[in-house]
Amino acid sequence: MVNKENKFLFFGNIGLRGKLVVTLFIGIFLISIVFGWVRIKIEQDSLRASIEAAGSGRAKALAAGASNLVAGYDYGNLEGLAKNLLNQPDVLSVTIRNDDGRPMAEFSKPGSETGLLFDAPIKFDKEEIGRASLRVSTDALEKATSAAILRIIIEQILGGILLSVIIYMLVSKIVVGPVRRLTEAMESAELDNEILGHALTFEYNDEIGKMVQVYNRLTHTLSEYHEKLQQKIDLANQALIDKNKELEKALVLVERMATTDSLTELPNRRHYDEMITLSIAQTERYGEPICLILFDLDKFKDINDTHGHGAGDDALKHMAAILRDNARKADIYARLGGDEFAIILSHTNETAAEIFVRNLQAALAKLPYSNHGVTIPFTLSIGVAQYDESMMSPQGLYFAADKACYASKRGGRNSYTLYSKLPIEAKGEPHVSK
Length: 434
Hints:
The chain has helices at residues 9-12, 16-71, 75-86, 139-181, 183-187, 207-259, 269-286, 300-307, 309-326, 350-366, 394-410, 424-427, and strands spanning 91-98, 103-108, 116-124, 127-136, 290-297, 332-337, 340-346, 370-371, 374-375, 380-386, 415-418.
């Protein structure tokens, strides 16, 4: 069938070679776009697979290197191992946890860049004793992808030009001659010269007609392929967005879990270590007083043995609630582990800390712990220490408060002791941080 209207007169007025050049340019250009995109996707997948393989290998190597250190609770060398790995340019964070999930060494670089997370089990004697994880920057992947895209575009352009020239020369020699003999018959027919993507019609079922038919099928196939490919891309992009949202929620939860005691929901030992270091730094800079209070629940083991560990856990929660109610907004409190609690009192001297301790004891006495209607009273052994230059470090302040707490236990429990009131022989040697 021949169309009666030529919608592109400029195309109809040029010679067959011109039509051949234009047709080849349009067809190869669109095909280059499609296959260029496919090459870019393959290149991206290959680069990502390489980075993931390298990241997984480094995570396994970190786990292997940390095995003996975790088994021996060698925090110093674990931190050294983590810091050495963090010095690598593409490593954003390194975390080593024990089998309880608590961090033994955790370091990260500042910034909000999101990277790829790799995790590997730490095994000792074929048993898992912890997890080692590291986050790797995707900056190298992005740069390599950009370079690959530019390279593929250049290759596609040069390849398209070269292919067009070759096809033009071959087809011009093989097709144009025979077609010239058909020109008189074709002049009486009108050609439908639609753009690529629309079916073209031709009157004769010869070689040129078959080429048009092949072209029509090819464009239809490419259109369907592109549509399906775009649908897959849209689905993949949506899945990636959903995964990113899940990852953000998981990161917030992990950060909260890393600094919060799961039983009492008080800040944990890690949070305490960070805050005591910061508080003492401010004290040394501005010369303001700071006190540390440590206390244990007296005969806590008896509660567990007599009433069960569930009652012991509830007693810890009860104590945590009283501590929250009596602490000031500026106070920093934490459960350090077991039945040991700590309170950092900034801008507070020993006299004010003593008042706080008395109020805490009074609040506990006023609101004793009750388990299923049975009152299970318990008391506290408390140590109070005000930071001074002789302590030299956060560890020194903890050492002093712990000495005072021990003195309260040794003195019969249910009491508090000021470190400054201890005799010299009870204070022991000053604690110096290494």
